[in-house]
């Protein structure tokens, strides 16, 4: 079993990953500014308050861990302003991981980040750009920094996120020709992430995750 640091653990995919990893028997360090308020009952979860933009917090959180899951998000209300969270946090995290000797990084970005932007359908491109453009420009910079690192990284690009429990029925699209948008439950993304903790088949790759339903 691994010791996992989840950055952005208070909600969304981060929180789902904390629960899924703990349920699988891993030790989990749940890192977020509001970590003390995280509602988890699974054993083996350590709440770790900290700021992803504070180098000392990140360095302390990396002590003794084997794997880092970066699952940051910004509130919808902040999408219309300049976004720097993803790249700034990654610019701190990568060298801190190198210094600490932690090699495995699983980073959640999203469908439309990096070279998957070309796979957005023509009908979706304008609204995607208007709403998510600033955030995804920053996710592009995040992915570029990770790709330039010597870490054993995997970039996870989920489609449109939904709630609900894990179905186990999702598609891992690992070639550009297969990339397309679709729905996927956060719990299924977390399930995929937990499977990557011990697996090496997606190291150095970017994958798009969608459910088995028809793409959108």
From TrEMBL:
The cross-references to Gene3D superfamilies, in alphabetical order and at most eight, read:
NAD(P)-binding Rossmann-like Domain
Question: What Pfam families does the record point to?
Answer: NAD_binding_10
Every copy of the NAD(P)-binding domain together lies at 8-197
Reading the lineage from the top rank, the first entry is Bacteria
What InterPro entries does the record tag this protein with? NAD(P)-bd_dom, NAD(P)-bd_dom_sf, Polyketide_Oxido-like
| PANTHER family, A to Z | FLAVIN REDUCTASE (NADPH) (PTHR43355)
Q: What is this protein called?
A: SDR family NAD(P)-dependent oxidoreductase
Where does this protein come from, organism-wise? Methylobacterium longum
């Amino acid at each position: 079993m691994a010791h996992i640091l989840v950055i952005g653990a208070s909600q969304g995919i981060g929180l789902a990953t904390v629960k899924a990893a703990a349920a699988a028997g891993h030790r989990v360090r749940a890192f977020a500014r509001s970590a003390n308020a995280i509602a988890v009952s699974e054993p083996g979860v350590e709440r770790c308050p900290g700021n992803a933009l504070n180098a000392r917090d990140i360095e302390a959180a990396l002590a003794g861990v084997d794997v880092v899951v970066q699952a940051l998000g910004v509130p919808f209300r902040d999408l219309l302003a300049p976004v720097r969270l993803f790249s700034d946090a990654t610019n701190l995290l990568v060298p801190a991981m190198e210094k600490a000797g932690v090699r495995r990084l699983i980073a959640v970005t999203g469908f439309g980040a990096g070279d998957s932007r070309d796979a957005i359908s023509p009908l979706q491109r304008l609204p995607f750009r208007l709403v998510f453009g600033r955030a995804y420009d920053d996710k592009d910079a995040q992915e570029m920094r990770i790709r330039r690192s010597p870490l054993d990284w995997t970039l996870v690009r989920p489609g449109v996120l939904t709630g609900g429990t894990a179905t186990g029925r999702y598609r891992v699209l690992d070639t550009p020709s297969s990339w397309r948008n679709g729905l996927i439950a956060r719990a299924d993304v977390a399930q995929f992430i937990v499977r990557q903790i011990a697996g090496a088949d997606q190291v150095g790759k970017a994958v798009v995750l969608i459910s088995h339903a028809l793409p959108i």
